[in-house]
Specification:
Largest sheet of chain A: 7 strands, mixed
Oligomer: homotetramer
Helix content of chain A: 25-40%
Radius of gyration of chain A: 22 Å
Structural class of chain A: alpha/beta
Distance between the termini of chain A: 59 Å
Low-confidence stretches of chain A: 246-259
CATH topology of the largest domain in chain A: Rossmann fold
Pfam family, one (chains A, B, C, D): PFK
GO biological process, one term (chains A, B, C, D): canonical glycolysis
Shape of chain A: elongated
Mean pLDDT of chain A: 92
Pathway (chains A, B, C, D): Carbohydrate degradation; glycolysis; D-glyceraldehyde 3-phosphate and glycerone phosphate from D-glucose: step 3/4
Strand content of chain A: 15-25%
GO cellular component, one term (chains A, B, C, D): 6-phosphofructokinase complex
Order of helices and strands of chain A: EHEEEEHEHEHEHEHEHEHEEHH
Largest interface: A-B, 45 and 45 residues
Number of strands of chain A: 13
GO molecular function, one term (chains A, B, C, D): metal ion binding
């Protein structure tokens, strides 16, 4: 039976989003004869009819190698706690009824929500109000449970490793400590894997509180063996031992961990004090979100899109597509959003890093 | 107890080999105080003492981002069927006793063989003669069983997709059919995944015999919808329906599938006959083996190396390290080399490709 | 005074064409209030009204980083010798009157022809029939006189050097001779500059006939000094000493130099006979034309486009924009197309290559 | 006559330095039979014998594609004003006599100084004290007079444009203003050329004081035409109209222009106040210095090295090699260091940018 599906992308942009959108559109139209509605700017687009538009084959032509999302995205727009101005004051109200209404009025039979923990949680709540939703996991930080990995992360790793390769030449030539700050508020995956791949000497992740003294000792030890430079990769959420940040999942608390100048700056300054070495900071920032997706991310995004269609076809809702080994499967959304997927401080990857001689800050 | 381990790399070179070697050396020396012997040019290096040399931290400095293998490699040197010149004639003899002797005289407690199906089979036979071996899987074609994937494949995919991105501009500008031939004698993984990621219109793999007529029909259909160009990715081992190649694993038969001009040339010529369209061929060839390994391959190679050390430490021999989901495990070598891992013509990845509107030649 | 300008791209595609088109459109519309007509598929587009369409700001949005040309191009369509089928036979006729008529009927006040020697020669002849033309030089081979360099060449060099970097790892790991064939039918610029940048050991260019014996001697000498691999870069038009190709500019004769298997194959086979070394060939082919243009080519293309508008504004026709040092200037088209710009076999660049220890085949 | 030449690299590191060093070593040893002495850590290396070491062919093997300098470099070590600790206080003394002495004792017949304005000025002063010097220009900022361009700049441009391409996807997806800060304390070349190539909407350079109001107006105008994002590239030395920085060449004053948070942060904050748009900053920083040099920079560096040898051979000292059009020439060092090469605010490149619709802050 012909269907009309709606697609939205929520949260930060991520390489591979367009691959998912393209796969959904191609698979829906070419194979199934369904219609597709593109919803602009995340959940915000469910508030206004003008932000829903038909997506055809023409709209997805040539978008596979392009970063970002042709649908636009925002971090706002949670219909269950929506900021509304009333009498000059900002009030948080629940406008989800209106959103459910809009979805139904647009004739949308199934809503594909592509997003991270935050967006998937909203999708789940909409599901509970009767909207048939399918989730597609998206997190550049690799911090979503129940899937081996999601698209975007691989591209972000390439960007970070490419940057580390570049910093190596300056570090070596100038005998410097180079600190590179990468994404990762709660989970240190990007720092850990790009650090291993980029030949870092020290890696600091949120899951392992660090000691500046031990870092300095380790750089000193390297120097005494003739290595006159060191490379440090620090996840933005890395914390000093004794620091008072409480790790808690959920986007509401995220802004607490922002800090004047950032962790890179902090580590560099502290190291400068205990070592007589020149130290410089690079903050990768938004570069990690951008650019043409890697082969891995384009494939994974495409396969996720096709799998989402199959779930809709079978009438399976409330699930999120996921990667397990080499297979695409699906899993209940609530299992995926119950907490963030963090690096295990005693796990295999951390252990490998330490056996490679990398200092984890402890 | 202090050990001395030997490392060799066999078969074609592959991005990530140096990451494995570096991890083995670092993990052995820094953490365990073991000695490492580098064996040059694959199994050939076991024949001459001059080809075994100590590998220290200095030898592996800076090799992580470099392609190839610092140990050298060859496709020759199988000690169980070794070509020896006798009275002006080439004779195939079994010199494995001498090799086993050399290994023991070099004081090697464990041999780490990094290689594909061929090299791992040799390693297994050496094991049966008493040499304690650990295998590290290496195949740029992704055709090894029992591991989700090996290093090198991801980098090769990036190279192939990068090339497809490039060919797109010429194909579009000139309204041409562009055929790109990629590696894959028996397994079509590179063609399939790079084709999906590179937005190919037709993908030809060894596992699915193709029909030129159907390919031409599909290009014709595209043209009638206004698409004046098409991109075809062909694995080197792709075969026309009714062709008489018998797929059989094992390196001995591989050269049968080589063919004058290659499959790319053949497909291009045949298409030129049935369509009035300009067609050009690109053979990626050795570019797919080369270059700096991707982040994924550097990490995977590093983790494989560390895992191999752990196996040796525990006295587990005859096993090959492998990736399962996000974990590094190990598996009996004989399970991995019993046949090649081929694309399932009715499997999930092929299905996704077809739902994306890609023509698989059938 | 408001004007309407026509733009066409002729000959092979080339990274940077879209930068020129975008600059012409932006500079014409934003600054001058002119109209722009895009002519599709090179000079062919001047034959049919349906191939001329208005180009506005929307049409050039996002095209700067994209390879190829949004206008399409062909190598056919010379209106002065146009193939027409008459009574089942192909006849070459002069249809330039019709073309001149079409241009005037389309209300085009000035025609910007972006192309190489061939396209610029046609443009010049149209000029002589009264069409006000401005030329923008385009040659991926860098064989156009009167400009230091054109766009496309820099990107092609990057592609070739990137490939050489990749081949190095295989060459080193396998102790092989790797031959890479690059573009350059008459001029060896790509081979020469990418060879210098990619650390080639031997470079073969059309301007210097080569001796296989001397090449083998040089590889032998390298081997005796301990270098067990060699990298050869060969321009597709390179010739053996005593070979009988007559170098002549003009696209008509170009196909004479095509040869079974190509120069790379030939050199590899001949070297295999005199040396006992494994040798492999890579033909870069269309990869050199493709891909996102480099910064240099995007800037140069953009500046060329703006300069072309300035010429039109001043009523200067029959000139081609060009780069001299760091300045964009212009020069009479006839000066640029009088012959190809070849590598000087005794010039500074060849001399530098030889001082670097590179063997030029002589 | 056999000679012994000394090589040093001064100032910040820069892609292409190793190409120069390699060319000097290869050209000196292979062609001329000269000896080469590598001087470590810039002019600092002239103070201690232990920092001078013979450079042979082995030392330069494989360094062509590598960033940085194998000789190391520092920004310190000016022998004419050298900081020495005396009685617990830092005193600036002239130790140039000792340096001249060391050079002569090391048997160095000619000193090749590879560096920017600062290093070349020191070289010139050593020349005046009798040391035969040849200069090789190096500036990643492209701010050296008397050469069309130097190596390193092209690679830095590629890095900056690559980053802009990445930021585009986030800017578009999130409807944001993205500000990217690039190098350029006094000269805006990197900002200007990467901005043109990366499709920036606003470019801020030190040579053109900017007005925040006008920038906001221009972004507002874009938004009213439907473009919901804007990209701003700012050179680190860009200044607001009415700001009080005095532009003066010479490294001594450079640190005055450093500022809390940097120009990117400043512009972003100011724009956020006058526009209701989300704005983010990326500081490229040291990424611009790093990485494998581009083809252009490897070739130019190699040719510079060879030219320097020719000058020594002819006994021409006190000159700096340079690029003019397509030729390598030489020029008196004093002509090159008399002031920095700045962007002409009324010149061709700025004009082209403005015709492309780019806002230059004025």
């Amino acid at each position: 039976m012909a269907k009309r599906i709606g697609i939205l992308t929520g949260g930060g942009d991520c390489p591979g989003l367009n691959a998912v959108i393209r796969a959904l559109v191609k698979g829906a139209i070419l194979k199934r004869g369904w219609e597709v509605v593109g919803i602009e700017d995340g959940f915000d687009g469910l508030l206004e009819e003008s932000k829903m538009r038909p997506l055809g084959l023409n709209e997805v032509r040539g978008i596979l190698p392009r970063g970002g999302t042709i649908l636009g995205t925002t971090n706002r727009g949670n219909p269950f706690s929506y900021p509304v101005e009333k009498d000059g004051k900002l009030e948080i109200v629940d406008i989800s009824d209106r959103v459910v209404d809009n979805i139904s009025r647009a004739g949308i039979d199934a809503l594909v929500a592509i997003g991270g923990e935050g967006s998937l949680t909203i999708a789940l709540e909409l599901m509970r109000k009767g909207v048939p939703v399918v989730g597609v996991p998206k997190t550049i930080d690799n911090d979503l449970l129940e899937t081996d990995v999601t698209f975007g992360y691989n591209t972000a790793l390439e960007t970070a490793t490419y940057a580390l390769d570049k910093l190596h030449s300056t570090a070596e030539s100038h005998h410097r400590v180079m600190v590179m700050e990468v994404m990762g508020r709660y989970a240190g995956w990007i720092a850990l894997e790009s650090g291993i791949a980029g030949g870092a000497d020290v890696i600091l992740i949120p899951e392992i509180p660090f000691s500046i003294e031990k870092i300095c000792e380790s750089i000193e030890r390297r120097r005494s063996r003739g290595s006159r430079f060191s490379i440090i990769v620090a996840a933005e959420g890395a914390m000093e031992k004794g620091g008072n940040r409480v790790v808690k999942s959920g986007p509401d608390l995220r802004h607490q961990v922002e800090r004047l100048g950032g962790i890179g700056e902090y580590v560099s300054r502290r190291i400068g004090k205990c070592l007589d070495m020149d130290s410089r900071v690079t903050v990768l920032g938004h570069l990690q979100r951008g650019g043409s997706p890697s082969t891995f991310d384009r494939c994974l995004g495409s396969r996720f899109g096709i799998k989402a269609l199959e779930l809709i076809e079978k009438g399976i809702f409330g699930e999120m597509v996921c990667l397990r080994g080499t297979e695409i499967r699906s899993v209940k959304i609530e299992k995926a959003v119950r907490r963030l997927k963090l690096v295990n401080p005693r796990g295999q990857m951390v252990n490998a890093a330490e056996e490679l001689g990398i200092m984890l800050g402890r």
